[in-house]
Design goal:
The complex is a heterodimer of chains A (277) and B (190). Chain A is of the alpha+beta class and 277 residues long. Chain A contains six helices and eight strands, in the order αααααββββββαββ. In chain A, strands 5-4-7-8-1-2-3-6 form an eight-stranded antiparallel beta sheet. Chain B has 190 residues and is mainly alpha-helical. Chain B contains nine helices and no strands. Classes of the chains: A alpha+beta (277), B mainly alpha (190). Chains A and B meet through helix 1, helix 2, helix 3 and helix 4 of A and helix 2, helix 3, helix 4, helix 6 and helix 7 of B.
Chain lengths: 277, 190
């Protein structure tokens, strides 16, 4: 016998015993080693003998077990299914579809808390920003109004200067304001006048400058004004010039009076000018 | 099996109804006790339920898998108890993955044969074996004995038992193949 024949015979002998589970431990291990190195033909033989052995089960006379076996089996299966479906504390499955619902719920709650806090903080910030922007808007609205008023005033002053028939009285600085000066310009045709002053000191709190029209040494108030920036020329429209013209003014003076003005000059004279000079 | 893999209990119940008479008969022929056989039968199907995910229909059919599982459990039980000859278990077959997950059962010539016809064919094939070969095979398969135990039981040399087993199984294979001559192509799983 050749070596291959011996090996084939040995393989066959062990294989038939192996598929019947009739080998001892040493021969079993021996055959399993042979099986790992088996060629295609040997593997085919192994599979066919295995199927042959499996078919032997059909040769027994069938016997029915008691009904209790099935009942107990299905009871165990049902309990296992109920346990895996109904409890949120079930141990997570190793597969991709298994999720620990308790951990998931906890993570979801934490995420919701973080989102809520973030939204509250964001809302607070938005409210603060809105308030600031509202205040800014109010300030800008006020500035716009002031600019509009200033523009209107300048339009009125310009209209006076554009008149064909203008009279002008120069005013000089007095002891209280030696460097100050000003002029009265009025439009006799339209009964409008404007006052221009320069280098007058800023008015103290609670005080205002008052313009006087003087006729027959009788001063008549022609209006109140304030100067905040002595470096800038200030222009004022005199609303009371119509009355002054009718009365025939001889001179003009500017005094410093309590805020709201006085019926007669009480304070120092800052500017003075005569019409006929 | 796909339904069982999807945890369909009804599918397992149907599988049990289909196979339990055959498996129970085989188990009881090995363990000899009804109560123990019933316990093992339940263990077999619980194992099917537990291991269903690992069943690969491309590698074997359900019948072979379950039968091997059942027989392994029965043999392991008898050998662990030193059941017949007083010998301690020499080897446990229960954890034999090669046994639990059969390979290549597209080699089964009776795979397309319905159950009742298959039983008839197998009995006829066994009857066609020489008596001495049939005896050693039946003792090995239906009583779960090792060849050494068979030799002691039948008072035969171990070599004789091996030879008769080998000759008988080869012949049995050929007989079964001859019954379904020309129809051993393809594969079908239960």
């Amino acid at each position: 016998m050749t070596r291959d024949t011996d090996h084939t015979n040995r393989f066959e002998e062990l294989c038939t015993g192996y598929v019947l589970h009739a080998l001892g431990p040493e021969e079993r291990s021996e055959f399993e080693r042979m099986l790992k190195q088996a060629d295609e033909k040997q593997m085919e033989l192994y599979h066919k003998l295995r199927s042959t052995a499996d078919n032997l089960a059909f040769a027994v006379e069938k016997v029915e077990p008691s009904q209790a076996v099935k009942e107990q089996l299905m009871q165990v299966i049902r309990e296992e299914l109920e346990e895996s479906d109904g409890s949120v504390t079930t141990t997570p499955e190793t597969g991709a579809e298994g999720v620990d619902t308790k951990v998931l719920a906890l993570a979801a709650s934490f995420a919701l808390l973080v989102v809520s806090l973030s939204l509250i903080f964001y809302s607070f910030n938005l409210s603060s920003q809105l308030k600031a922007q509202t205040e800014t808007l109010a300030t800008q609205q006020q500035q716009l109004t002031e600019l509009q008023n200033e523009l209107q005033l300048k339009d009125e002053l310009l209209a006076i200067l554009q008149s064909r028939d203008l009279d002008m009285v120069m005013m000089k600085g007095m002891e209280a304001s030696p460097n100050g000066y000003g002029k009265i310009i009025w439009d006799a045709e339209h009964q409008q006048a404007l006052l221009q002053v320069s280098n007058l000191p800023p008015v103290p709190n609670g005080m205002e400058y008052q313009l006087w029209i003087i006729r027959n040494n009788q001063p008549v108030s022609a209006g109140l004004f304030s100067v905040n920036d002595p470096g800038r020329d200030s222009f004022f429209k005199i609303e009371e010039m119509a009355d002054a013209e009718e009365q025939g003014s001889d001179a003009f003076a500017v005094t410093l009076e309590p805020k709201g003005g006085m019926p007669q000059p009480t304070g120092d004279t800052y500017l003075m000018g005569n019409r006929n000079e | 099996m796909k339904r069982i893999q999807a945890r369909d209990a009804k599918a397992l119940e149907q599988l049990y109804d289909h196979y339990n008479p055959l498996l129970y008969a085989m188990i009881i022929s090995i363990v000899k006790e009804r109560e123990e056989a019933e316990d093992l039968l339940q263990e077999v199907f619980l194992k099917v339920w537990e291991k269903a995910y690992s069943f690969d229909g491309q590698r074997g059919n359900v019948y072979s898998w379950i039968v091997t599982l059942a027989r392994n459990k029965a043999i392991d039980r008898t050998r662990s108890k030193g059941y017949k000859t007083g010998q301690k278990a020499s080897v446990s077959v229960e954890d034999d993955e090669a046994g639990i997950i059969p390979q290549g059962d597209h080699f089964d010539p009776l795979q397309s044969t319905i159950f009742s016809d298959r039983a008839e064919l197998v009995r006829k094939a066994l009857d066609d074996l020489p008596e001495e070969q049939r005896k050693v095979i039946k003792v090995a398969y239906y009583q779960g004995m090792t060849q050494s135990e068979i030799a002691q039981l039948l008072n035969l040399p171990l070599g004789t038992v091996k030879t008769r087993t080998r000759q008988g199984m080869i012949k049995l294979k050929n007989i079964l193949e001859g019954f379904i001559s020309g129809n051993d192509q393809g594969y079908r799983s239960y």
